[in-house]
Amino acid sequence: MLITSRTIRLLMPVAAALFLGVALAIRAVDDGALRQYSGTALYASMVWAGVLFLWPRLAPAPVGVIAVLFCWMVECAQLSGVPAELSARSLVARLVLGVQFDPVDLLWYPIGVIPLAALHRRVARGVPLTPRGQQQPEGSAQGSGMSE
Asked: How far is CA 128 from each of CA 1, 83, 99, 121, rounded to the nearest angstrom?
């Protein structure tokens, strides 16, 4: 199945919304480490979706690298105090920029991006997403040679 840039641009906001929904659901039921670290990883996942939305033809590795570097840049900017000041005035700034630097977050950003980059690589190579040995359903797009 051929996935076009247009399809990617339609899917990435949906993916970002799903990542946000999962983060908010976890936030609603947990107030400990799971909440903090999953939120950090899912933030990076949303950034990955944003990068792929902007550059849908970019290969998986560069998308992942750009997403992680952006997250690290935002995290390191928190050392300046500017994000904390902006976050005090705006909920959106708080969600996007954070409040204070946490070196552990630097480790969690790649955790939110690496699985997505691996999935992106599989899809880009045309590798079926079904487990080995399972048959494709009759009339599936992959089995019929249909493309977008």
From this structure: 10, 42, 41, 11
Taking the C-alpha atoms of residue 44 and residue 145, their distance in angstroms, rounded to an integer, is 34
Q: What angle do CA 54, 74, 63 make, to 5 degrees?
A: 30
pTM: 0.81
Rounded to whole angstroms, the Cα distance separating 39 from 17 reads: 13
Helix (H, G, I), strand (E, B) or coil at 109: helix
Inter-residue contact 83 to 76 (CB < 8 Å)? no
Phi-psi region of 132 (alpha: psi -120 to 50; beta: other; left: phi over 0): beta
Number of H helices, E strands in the chain: 7, 0
57-79 pLDDT, tens digit per residue, is: 999 999 999 999 999 999 999 99
Q: Show the tokens assigned to 10.
A: 């339609």
